[in-house]
Amino acid sequence: MRPSDVAAVDSALRDHDYLPDPALATVVFLALRLDRPLLLEGEAGVGKTEVAKVLSRWTGGELIRLQCHEGIDVAQAVYEWDYARQLLHLRTLEAAGRAGSEVDLYDRRFLVRRPLLRALEAVPGPRPVLLIDEIDRADDEFEAFLLEILSEWTVTVPELGPVRAVEPPVVVLTSNRTRDVHDALKRRCLYHWIDHPEPERELEIVRRRAPGADGELARQVIAVIGTLRALDLYKSPGVAETIAWAEAVAALGARNLDPETIDATLGVVVKYREDQERVRALGLDAIAAGVDR
Amino acid sequence: MTASPITAGSGVAIAVELARAVRTAGVPVSVDRTVLLAEALAAIGLTDRERVFAAGRSVCCSGPDEFAAYAAGFAAVFGTEVIAGHPIAVPPRIVVTDSGDDASENESGNAVGPSATLRWSRAEVLRELDFAAYTAEELAEARWLMARMRPVGATRRSRRLTRSARVGRHPDLRATARRALRTGGEAVHPIHRRRSVRPRRIVLLLDVSGSMEPYARVYVRFLQAAVSGRAGVEAFVFGTRLTRITRELAGHDPDGAVVAASRRVVDWSGGTRLGEGMRRFNDEWGVRGLARGAVVVIVSDGWDRGDPERLGSEMARLHRVAHRIVWVNPLKATEGYAPTAQGMAAALPYCDHFVEGHNLDALDRVIVALGD
Predict the structure, then answer these.
(1) Which of A169, B152, B242, B294 supports an S-S bond with B201, CB 3.0-4.6 Å?
(2) Is B1 in contact with A22 (Cβ distance < 8 A)?
(3) Are the C-beta atoms of residues B75 and B107 closer than 8 Å to each other?
(4) Residue B131 falls inside a structural domain
(5) ipTM over 0.90
(6) Are residues B188 and B206 both part of a single domain?
(7) Whole domain around residue B174: which residue ranges?
(8) What residues of A are in contact with residue B51 (Cβ under 8 Å)?
(9) Do B113 and B67 share a structural domain?
(10) C-beta neighbour count of B356 within 10 angstroms
(11) Which residues of A touch B180 (CB under 8 A)?
């Protein structure tokens, strides 16, 4: 899918329940148009991963997710051989009185495809959406390897030869900035920092994503979240927490965010003991009273 | 969104001009980025300033710390009207203080001894320390430190597996299957892998407030030796702000690296707010992951004019994620010194090692402490 203009991207994302900030729509448009990977950074819970999911829902391309972690290697990211089947195959040949050879062993049917290989192998239909999540958790060496794939759209399986994408997949990388992603990789990507949404947009997001909470409750949740963010907590609640809170309160059957309800559900939004103490010290009554009914 | 058309002229010329202006404003925009910028502008057109702004930023910047400089460069080409809500880089405020009235700025609650090295100033003094070229002896020392740093550091078990001669818990099926070719599919020689051992990350935090001034030069050199001597070392300095100088210190030219780093730091010899500095480090880097499982080395005399409780709680946060905390205090060797400065006293319960660091021998002991 290569959209014709930015407005088309903006409305498509909205249609699929993602409300982008204006800059994000532009950057997503460019990523799709220029076949560039999109590197997203931002605080936890602002919807970085969600961008890849909504792109998949919109374009119909399969969402292929690669969760990065320390020590991730080719066997987990690109491909592996199905060793048990290979060994069985060799035994079968042996039993039939024939000698096995490398060619038999490294046949495509023994290949286990991992996310990166799957994203590059052509399938009919829309191009897949490759989500490379939390790239900052992987090692440097893996990043360098990734850079090669993201610029050449080719991986080489030594026993089979190169696999080249007919059409590059849509690639979204996310990072939590626990360390610097290499410049070379950043240069390859379009960069966007996702900020916390402004209150009106957040309200709209909650209405769409937590339909169980009625309009009034959603408004109160946003108001209290605003108070909490102003408290300078260790971990300010993100949009993900806002949505979860609205859902939690609605699930309890509460119509209003009164002090008791806040007390019972505070753990959904504030997840550090120190932060909880801070909020309680301020007084749940005072916080609830800040919401005009 | 504003819809005023920007200018006539070809997209390529505008891309080149914007790239140049952004570069001048301080964001390194390489030539391949300029090409991408031209492609991007061609794709979105030049009719909507907001979009041009967003597109240019996604191409030119690679972190939020570059956004303000980018906005300044953008404004130089397209004017300032566009960027409502986007911060524009403001030239740093230069504060000239008379060091003589430092004493008069002491707050009543903070009793200070008479020693000349224990002064502080309330104002953030924006100036560059005089990091003159290394002398021959200093270069030799730097090389020695780098060499000493190379093999240093506590280790941790990695998730990465390496080939092992011994039978272990992780069979290497790939190698075993290949080997089995020779034996007709019978895995006669199973091959194993085991967890490898990697050095832990080392995070160095250097206090560059006024009272640390006599030590700043030598410790920046220590940081430089550490960063370039071994992989996985991160360096920060803090006084009234927190500045990451890892990138500046990397490389093999100690002279150039130290000059580059000192240029980056604007709060040399300013006030001391240890708690605030630690909080910024925890929020922006440490607790997010940089200090997780790492050996954290804090070089500071422990003089804090902020709230000592704040420093205590930030040290507690750091302690929960770090592998070890080593506190290097250049004053510790001073005769009669006891860690009674409020900041130091609050921090001490969370330090695994408390070492002196007033000369090269002491630095060597720091290096030894890193290995524990």
Answers:
(1) B294
(2) yes
(3) no
(4) no
(5) no
(6) no
(7) 161-198
(8) 6, 22, 26
(9) no
(10) 18
(11) 87, 90
